[in-house]
Write a structure and sequence with these properties.
With about 160 residues, this protein is of the alpha/beta class. The protein has a single domain, classed as Ribonuclease H-like superfamily/Ribonuclease H (Nucleotidyltransferase, domain 5, 2-Layer Sandwich), CATH 3.30.420.10. About 45% of the residues lie in helices and about 25% in strands. A hairpin with a 3-residue loop joins strand 1 and strand 2. The longest helix has 27 residues. The chain is globular and about 50 Å long.
Amino acid sequence: MKNVVIYSDGASKGNPGDAGIGVVISTEDGTVLREIGEYIGQTTNNVAEYTALIRGLREAADLGATSVDISTDSELMARQLSGVYKVKSPNLKPLFEETVGLLRHFKRVSISHVMRELNKRADQLANEGVRNHKANSRNEKINSCSEPKPATVERRERQGQLDF
């Protein structure tokens, strides 16, 4: 495989807040090779944007890509990677450096800032990562509230009243 297209997006609810990444990797003709939507913890939107691109670049390398066309709706990240803006944030510098290191593995790289509408699926995946995490967290809380506490079980066992 030679060229792939990477659509990447990061989302943070609260900025900083619950964050997710969305990545779509496709061939030039639009055939989707991989889609990724994951929760990445509590962080800022800009950190999520870089994290999504890093994941996309790693996946593209795993697919054997030798060149990548990157589309992102993060103007900041696109301009930092293009050298138009300097990276001033201490939180972003290590991510920027990691991204640049990954970009060097490809023979050709293009980075485009696109409007959110043209990055829709990656945006959906990033938001799904956050939503799924929140839903799983709520389910875990509900399940943990409905299960008997170990002390209660032990007490029932001692009393010979264990009947589930």
